[in-house]
Predict the 3D structure of the following.
Amino acid sequence: MNAVVTGASKGIGKAIAEKLAVEGFNVAICSRDAAKLEDAAADIKAKAPQAEVLTFSADMSKKEDVLAFANKIKEIFQTVDILVNNAGLYLPGALHEQEDGLLEYLMAVNVFSAHTITRQLLPSMITQRKGHIFNLCSTASYQAYPNGGAYSITKFALLGFSKNLREELKNHNVKVTALSPGPTLTASWDGWDGPADRMMEPADVARLLWAAYTLSAQAVVEEVIMRPILGDIG
């Protein structure tokens, strides 16, 4: 069994890749930072020695990098059973204050990369009538908030992509899940000085993804929102 996780050198992506590897999957992971990517691969292999871990250094804002990653996956893996579109970038700020071009950049990273790699890997899922696509959305996909800016727009768009994909693929027996975590202890929250237990852990997201994947063949979780027990952080 083979899985692809984008943006998996740290945080939620790494936790998901580790979970899938432990559960018996080979995993293909990508990130911009080649050194951190290799460190992540070593950590995954330490927990799941049997897993094949394919690494690929890619800037997901660049379509040519996304296509190159997809081509490498198709070269190594005959099929893809799980695709996790996790690559994303969080840059807060009010729309009228953010620099020109930021929306386009975040759309490329947070939305267009998911669209491109999904289109590349989907044909084999359709052919085998089996597969599960997870799009890592956000609570920001549902609720606008001050300083959400361009980031929030991209997360609304990713949720729309998930909804459309779900409708298109139901008759092909391919599952689509929009997984939307709230505050999670990752690099996006660097500088936050509150207690660590105020946030969810990346492993929480990985465990929920696995639970959704292991439902019966006739069941699919279309959307799920996760928040810390005390709610969002203002």
